[in-house]
Amino acid sequence: MTERILVVGGALYAEGRLLAARRSAPAHLAGRWELPGGKVEPGEDPEQALVRELREELGVEVKLVERVPGEWPLERPGYVLRVWAAELISASAEGVRPLEDHDALRWLAPDELWDVDWLEHDRPAVTATARWHATRA
User: Fold this and answer.
1) What angle do CA 65, 6, 100 make, to 5 degrees?
2) pLDDT at residue 55, as a whole number
3) Where are the domains of the chain?
4) Domain 5-134, CATH class in plain words
């Protein structure tokens, strides 16, 4: 049986716009977009991991609002994605810096969500996130 690895993603909102990150690595994912986040480390709970990942990779502090319903399998066997809605609390939307494995960030208004080429495994997560956000906007 394949070990299950949890990956957490942040549906980071500022002024009603969702943050998307464009992959620069690995090569087969380069140019595609995803929600920022990363793997949960041993001994870490998912919420702690997401706050840590967004702090380390984007240089921001966030407030997690709630988990977006759903869980989505990733490209690598055993990896699954869970997403939490989050609010930016310590940086402006313009103050976010790119991730290590990313070369661009983009804030997307609700009518721009599908203007970027999302990774296949992020598409259902983005759909669920948009549905979640629409019920709270």
Assistant:
1) 80
2) 86
3) 5-134
4) alpha beta
